[in-house]
Design goal:
Blueprint: H1 5-12, H2 32-57, H3 65-68, H4 76-118, H5 130-151, H6 154-159, H7 161-182, H8 187-203, E1 216-225, E2 232-238, E3 253-259, E4 267-270, E5 273-274, E6 280-286, H9 291-302, E7 305-315
Helix pairs in contact: 1-2, 2-4, 2-8, 4-5, 5-7
Amino acid sequence: ALNTAPIAAAVAALHLTMSDSCPVAPGRPCDTPSILADVVGLTSARLARLDLGVCLLLAARGEAAVLHATGGYLGYSEAQPLHRAAGWWCAGQSALHSLAYFFFYLRAGGAASLWQACFPAPLPDGSLNRLGLVNFMGVVAIAVCGPLALSALPLVRRRCYHAFQRLHMPVALLFVTCCALHDLAILTFAVPGLAFWYVEWRGRGGRKGVLGCSLRRFTATARLLPGTSGPWAELTIHCGGAALGHDAAPRGEWVSLRALPLGTEWHPLSVTSAGGRAAGLSALVSARGGDWTKALVHLCATTGSFEVELAGPFPFGGGPWSLSGGGGGGEPALLLLAGGTGVTGWLPAL
C-alpha cells in the first residue's frame, strides 16, 4: 500500500493536478496522457527516494544504531527481508519513473524532444543542455539498476553468490551516485543509511564484538553429528582467551563467517554456544542449507581443522527473550523439546 496508494491517489486526482513540466516547448500544450505520465513519474520518483532510504538503513549487519533503536526486536534476520523488499520496490519505482518520462517527452515533442531532454545533446543556440545532462544521469542510473536487480534475483544470487557479494555493493553505490546527480534531494534519504553502514563497517575492523571476537582469522575444528539428517556438523571457532566463560547458548547472536578453503563467500551462522570447554564459539551447519553448507559439511568430514575469517558476533532481533529467566525476575526457565528417534543424533550435542 505504501508504494501503490500514492500513485493511485495521484491518478484519481488528475483533473485537479497542474503539470510543472508542461509545456515542454512553446506552443505545444500537454494533453491528458502527457499530464498523466508526468504525475506518475513525479510520484514514483518520490516513492523511490523513500524506498532507497529504507533499503540503505537496513543494509547494516547487526550493530548499527538503527537496529539497536528497536530495542532488540529488529535484527539481521528481520532486516534482510525488509532490505530486499525495499530494494525491489526502489528498482520498480525507478523503472516506472523512467518509463513515464520517456513517454512524456515522446508524447510532447517526439524523438527530438526525448533526445534533447534525456541526453546531453547540444542545444540549437550552443548553450549547455542542463536538463539533458541531469536527466542523462537518471538514464545511466536506470541502466545500472538492470544488472543490480538481475544479480539480486534469488536464482542468480544462489548460483553465483560469490559474484553477488563482490558486485552488489559497488554497483549499488554507482546507482546511488547516479541517482544523486540526477536528483540531489535523494541524498536526504540516502545519506543516513550510508552513514550507518559505514560506521558499522568501520567498527568491525578492530573492535571486539559481544562475545569477544572481531574481524580476524581463527582456527576452526569440526565434527559430524552421526545420526542427524543432512548430515549436520558442529563447527567450533577457537578465539582463545577472548571467549566468554559459559557454555549457555548466547541470546540471539550470529557471526559472518568465511571458510578459507571454500573461497571468498561470507555467510551468516547462528551461534549455539560460547566459552567454556570450546574456548570460543560454536555453530551447527546442515548440508541441506545449500551448495556452500554442503561443501562446508564435506570439508568438516574430510578435514579436522581449517582456517576461517570471522566478523561479529552481531545481535539477532526478536526482542529481549532469555532461557535463563534473566528478564523475568530471575526465575529459571524450562525448555521442553519433543522428538522421536530423529533426536538420537543430537543427544551428544544437547
